[in-house]
Amino acid sequence: MTSSLRILGTLLNAWRVDAAIADITRPPLQPRPITIPTETKTLRLDLAKAAMLVIDMQNDFCHPDGWLAHIGVDVSPTRTPIQPLQALLPVLRTAQVPVLWINWGNRPDLLNISANVHHVYNPTGGGVGLGDPLPVNGAPVLEKDSWAAAVVDELVPDPTDIKIDKYRMSGFWDTPLDSILKNLGRTTLFFAGVNADQCVMTTLQDASFLGYDCILVKDCTATTSPDYCWLATLYNVKQCFGFVTDSTTIAKAIK
Question: Are 19 and 30 in contact (CB under 8 A)?
């Protein structure tokens, strides 16, 4: 094929074209297989087709001055993924596994937020709900580009990472996440973040329904819900939607 063809699209999902030719073969990915033990089976997967999704590790969910803490939730569980993520994310980046931050980040006008979603976060209508200022610092709850919606200081996204705003519990609902993963050629997804039984689980379920391979990274995931919710999440992931492993196992397999 002639070298004069021009690239259209992102590198891993691109056509090469000129006035007469459209080469739609797309460039092949060099396989980088690794083997990872999980709680149910040993997996052989291709790092060239893998991505890491970090969900809602934000001030409103994980900081003692954030929204969850304001409404009386003990946020100490949501901080437990910080240290293992600090260790794992650099390993993944070195292995050229994309890291995607899937964060709740609403429009300031809240025009895409329905009344039933408002009700989840402000059931009496008189509390501090989506978009309302936090009493401690005035940051609007889960508003895009606010302190409340920012990733906690202990986890610093790399310039090469990809940031996606979501507006529901699932990171796939009304977002470009699926299109981005397709352009990256990624079909195997590692999941981390909070809350395990809510935003992490719904995103993982939707990924499974869309045909992605799903792996929950147990020590990089947490919840403020009761223990039975955590146990049910682990059970359902292993039974219906994918696999469960931990960060140390992944890092060891990569290294």
Answer: no
Residues with Cβ within 8 Å of residue 89, at least 6 apart in sequence:
52, 54, 99, 155, 158
Beta bridge partners of 217: 245
Q: Rounded to an integer, what distance in angstroms lies between the CA atom of residue 169 and that of residue 126?
A: 22
Question: Residue 30: beta bridge partners?
Answer: none
214: amino acid identity, one letter: C
Question: Coil, strand or helix: which one is 126?
Answer: coil
pLDDT digits (tens, 9 = 90+) for 202-235: 999 999 999 999 999 999 999 999 999 999 999 9
How high is the pLDDT of residue 35? 97
DSSP 29: P
DSSP letters spanning 58-124: BHHHHSTTSHHHHTT---GGGGTTHHHHHHHHHHHHHTT--EEEEEE-B-TT-TT--HHHHHHH-TT
Taking the C-alpha atoms of residue 14 and residue 8, their distance in angstroms, rounded to an integer, is: 5
> For the chain, what's the residue count?
255
At 1 the pLDDT is 53
Integer Cα distance of 166 and 161 in angstroms = 16
| pTM score, whole prediction | 0.94
**DSSP calls for 211-223:** T-EEEEEEEEE--
Token match 């899937």: residue? 102
The confidence score (pLDDT) of residue 27 equals 81
Instruction: Tell me the pLDDT band of 121, cut-offs 50, 70 and 90.
Output: confident
Could you give the CA distance from residue 252 to residue 212 in angstroms, rounded to a whole number?
23
31 touches 187 (CB < 8 A)? no
Q: What are phi and psi of 244, to 5 degrees?
A: -130, 130
- Residues 16, 66: Cα–Cα separation, whole Å: 48
